[in-house]
Design brief:
Blueprint lengths: L8 H29 L2 H29 L1
Helix pairs in contact: 1-2
Length: 69
């Protein structure tokens, strides 16, 4: 049985940065759409929801890699 390789610092930093980016991009795009359409909280919340979904999918895929190794 091979020893499991733990994630290194650069992997963990990119994991956190990508998760934060998903949330910020979702919020930013939702805010921009709201400004253009004049419906302030609606698309901001939709963008936040999409950012959370994107971050969750990315997190699941990355965590699954480390448990398969």
């Amino acid at each position: 049985m091979e020893p499991r390789s733990d994630p290194d610092l650069s992997t963990l930093l990119s994991f956190g940065l990508t998760t934060a980016t998903c949330l910020v991009v979702g919020l930013g795009l939702g805010w921009l759409v709201d400004l253009a359409m004049g419906t302030l909280p609606v698309f901001l919340l939709v963008g936040l929801g999409l950012g959370i979904v994107a971050a969750s999918v990315y997190s699941y895929q990355q965590i699954k890699k480390f448990f398969q190794e």
